[in-house]
Design a protein that fits this description.
By secondary structure, the chain is mostly helical. It contains four helices and no strands. Helix content is 71%, strand content 0%. The relative contact order is 0.06. This is YbdD/YjiX family protein.
Amino acid sequence: MAEGKHEAATIAAAGARARQAGGSVFGAALRRSLGTGGRYLGQTMRLMVGMPDYERYVAHVQRVHPGQTPMSYEEFFRNRQDARYGGRGKVGCC
């Protein structure tokens, strides 16, 4: 029971701080959710049209291959284009 009271007090305190700042707890949560949703939507749209995600690639290289230098954006874009459309000198799908 004391745990529930503590949680209610925490929520009430957050609400008071938000109102004091001129907003609401739900408004802040909604803005965060919309921002996250917007990022996911943008990433999905880029993937649907075949546009590579360079920032994600750089983060991966830094995290998984710390000694390796990431490709420049131009190298990365060309690499992804070649991988998608068949590479050097090939025109069309066949």
